[in-house]
Amino acid sequence: MSATSTFPTFTSAQMIAVDRGRELGATWRTEIWASFAAYLELFQAFGATADQVRSWSMRAIDRLAEWAPDLADEIAGVAGGASLKLWQVGAINARTEIIAAARVAGAATECSTAVALPGGKRPPRTIQTWDWNERMRETPVLLVYDLNPDHSVRGLSEFGMVGKIGVNSAGLGVHFNILRHASDHERIGVPVHAVARRILDEATDIEQAEEIARSADLSASTVLTVVTFDGARGRVRGLELSPSGVGVVNADDDGLYVHTNHFLDPSLSDGDTLAPERPNTYDRMKHLRERAGELGSDDLMDRVEAMRCHTDDGAPVCAHASPDDPFELRSETLATVSLDVAGFRLSVHRGGPCQVTADTWQTI
What we know:
By secondary structure, the protein is α+β, with helices and mostly antiparallel strands. The protein is 33% helix and 25% strand. The chain folds into two domains: 12-101, Arc Repressor Mutant, subunit A; 112-363, 4-Layer Sandwich (Penicillin V Acylase, Chain A), CATH 3.60.60. The radius of gyration is 19 Å and the shape is globular. 55% of the residues are buried.
């Protein structure tokens, strides 16, 4: 991992999308350029040509401009501020769609999310590992911004990317895990990262989040775990996004919700194409379900303890890159994240659960 123990933070008071993007681009120009270069290297390792990446990226921008014009404007602002071409920033935001279009086997990596609903007036307890290619160790950034005087967002994303994991001031949070489905295709749709961002920007409850998700025409798959707390009750719902539709996953009767990297909704599970290649998704889910007590603890370090499991232990919840794998398949846990939807806080540790101590959390 990087010698730097925390992620950089971008805080903006700009409430006009293009201005916020331009400010981000100008402030973090070098980092956004590096993010694009890392993704272009990864896409080319997966067999995509520069011309294909450019074409697919511009299709993503076009789809986004139709579905969420403000987010398209923000991306244009980032490109202008960073002196990048629009398609280059589009490529960062459409990385899931580009990889799906390239039909890459085994490209998706392991992320594990758990949410416990303790009952009563206690808020949800959440934690996830975010795993991605080791080449992307320097791409993450924390975002803090206001949409209007009454609605703010705090999130973990990547330089140049509009959003990923986060929490808003309305008491709603979003976790993010990759999926892959037989219906994924190269006719690029709305980027799934933009769906997560729009939910954080606009939704105040699970029903609104689901409505936003169902309105997007997609070409790649992901599960967004939406968590809410209204002061009296916590709720969680997994929205399994795919070009074939949106599946729904709820907590079990004991209030535990776990999602790894396979579809759980029966209407979509037959089309799952990732689990056959990476069956450890089932091992990770089994492991986490067996740690329900720790995952429901008020103490975040107890939840971390439930995630301290590696390949040699039977379930790579905490992932480490193998030097024997080709560069494009070297996946590791880049961040461990917990959302406090009641307190409007995001806590993140740079690296996997096995490295977490009480002092390594960065909270925004």
